Give the backbone structure.
Amino acid sequence: MFTDCDISSYLIFCLAAALAPQDQVEQFFKSGHTNNWAVLVCTSRFWFNYRHVANTLSVYRSVKRLGIPDSHIVLMLADDMACNSRNPKPATVFSHKNMELNVYGDDVEVDYRSYEVTVENFLRVLTGRIPPSTPRSKRLLSDDKSNILIYMTGHGGNGFLKFQDSEEITNVELADAFEQMWQKRRYNELLFIIDTCQGASMYERFYSPNIMALASSQVGEDSLSHQPDLGIGVHLMDRYTFYVLEFLEEIHPASQTNMNDLFQVCPKSLCVSTPGHRTDLFQRDPQNVLITDFFGSVRKVEITTETISLDPNLAILESRTPKDEITTEALKYAEQLPVAQIIHQKPKQKDWHPPGGFILGLWALIIMVFFKTYGIKHMKHIF
Amino acid sequence: MSSSSPEADAALLPLQGGSLGSLTIYIIPEASSLLPQGVSVYIGKHRSAVVRGPPAAGDVLTVVNARVRHIAQTMSFTPDSIAAALSDRVPLGNLGLDTRRPFKSSLGYEITFSLLNPDPKSHDVRWDIEAAVRGYVQPFLDKLSFVANFTVDSQILYYAMLGVTPRFDRNSSSFLLSAHSLPHVINPVEARLGSSAASLFPVLNFLLYVPERAHSPLYIQDRDGALVRTNAFHSPRWGGIMVYNVKHPAADEAPLPLRVDVDMVRVMEVFLAQLRLLFGISRAPLPGEFLLENPGNAGLAAWELDRLLWARTVENVATVSTTLTSLAELLDKIGNIVIKDDVASEVYRAVASVQQALEELAAGRLGAAFQASKEAVTSSERAFFDPSLLHLLYFPDDQKFAIYIPLFLPMAVPLLLSLAKILREARRGKKEPTKTD
């Protein structure tokens, strides 16, 4: 009888695939995502790091062009180059010399700007541990069927990436953050691209499934910048991102180009450094992964074949029943600070603890040496 | 007496008790005329079913066992439907599109109806969306109010084009959108939908597109090239789009803009069907001898709500257990994270609620089980995503060494050397008495 269905045994149920074998094969190769997110981070400030902001903005531009809307992009720029007082062409950020391509555009939406780009905020965005007052545009609201593209650029070294010239994020912290995301199923598949010196060290420690990583240089190599513009006076782009941008300009939302082409993008002859990639954690073969799976937002659609039948007369009858006027409650200011929570917590009793062994030992040592050196008979002269 | 099955069902409703998750099956004599000819099972829109009994007067129960089992699986849950609720824990490739389409269990949803008018010069489109929502959508959402909180809003967007240019088909002298161009329709519009200003809950978008005069009439083609009857399509976990064609009078001297009053009944029939699919309420195919009662304007039978609740409860319990387990693993790995009092109380509450939910599930009390699982999810999410649990805020041991060693090592070198000298002198002093002044 149906009551025999042991509810607690749902956890060990195996699935019987109800699909025909042909469909199953097709499903397996296609990605199972339903939405796309992008987190684009530029970690350097100061005018001479113009190229890092231009890198990030070019990826932003490509990603928007291929269909991901602003509401699904978290853009973090550590400094403002477009309105910098040293910019001879204000409100523009160029990626080509001779000012061919302005990647700043008219509709850029920067979510984290200037001093808000910190390691703490970046990790908060990834793991979702954000204070409740954060606006929606600053959150990564991905679910278990989101494909996320994470692009980071800046100055880095073996195992770390420098944020704002004052702090750094290590590859271990990044790997742990991704594992936290995986535990909460905040992504379906993740593509991590990093354009810094010794970038490959940043993806060495990843251990969560479904991550594919690309880096612009191997450990021990530097990523080089592309070309300076004599009018603006700084280097405009990094080589790796420049060639990635050229590659992405050929992609349109319906293209079938796969990841293997992206891996070939910047050979050593052009890039001087050797780009690397890591696909062992990724379940699908890179041959079957489309570029638009991460850079674009191609939605799966289904034709609606069924309707339900509604009876308009019934509806009129129902809506004629008098409904009370909904009393609108008086508007009040939303609580920004959880005062009640703070007040509720009892103040921690700060007990006095005697100084610990280390401090005592240190002082004993210092005093002993002092008296040994100067002799105890001098004590009355000193004090 | 001859009455129809819906009337009988309504008459028997007060006798049933009707709590969530319950199921009443009536077995009627084989020769009864309550069910039409050829129909042996009738599934009502509340929580009851009527089965035609076997011809012989033998052991009725064993004979109808298979049918009763089938009814129970249709009206409550099957192993597949429960496993589909756990789809995010199952590796890729084992599941069909049905599991990817519905939204994950959440505490609230935001539903937005948008009217897209790309050609306001030719069409002056009016739609009485408030009355339609009140009359058709609100009863459906009221039935689902136990599941989550819903907010509904609507907007009209002008000059919002689709991203795809439709093809002109000479045979039918109409414009066609083929099935493989449909995925690219949504993206250009999405930026203007304003979902970034909406709430933190998942947003369902329903778009009604009135094509431009130059591109009228516009039909959607499915994969085989046939025209889609509903002229609508939907995207998993996002929402749906319907194309509404306007009849233009033959004479060209009709004054522009043409006033169009949208037939909300037709539109809501499609949107509600899409809403049901996006919540995972779909009808499994039944054999021909089964007859399902039309749920009417509410759009949802009570047992379909039960199906949803079974799946959601299981999903919630699974989510809570994995959340709490990974929180415990995080605390194991980073030993010096401080757990605040309120985080600790949320964790205790989550554990208590999930244990209660499991007890209620085992007893079959669906309503209480779902309520407990919802509380468990709220508490566990609040505990896991508490902003104070960021591991950056706590010094790992290697950073402690990195800070204190450069500070104390230079200072400690002369101290230790002097200490060594003191010890040596003291040892030498023990061997020979020191001369004192």
Observations:
- The longest strand of chain B covers residues 108-117.
- The longest helix of chain B spans residues 397-431.
- The mean pLDDT of chain B is 83.
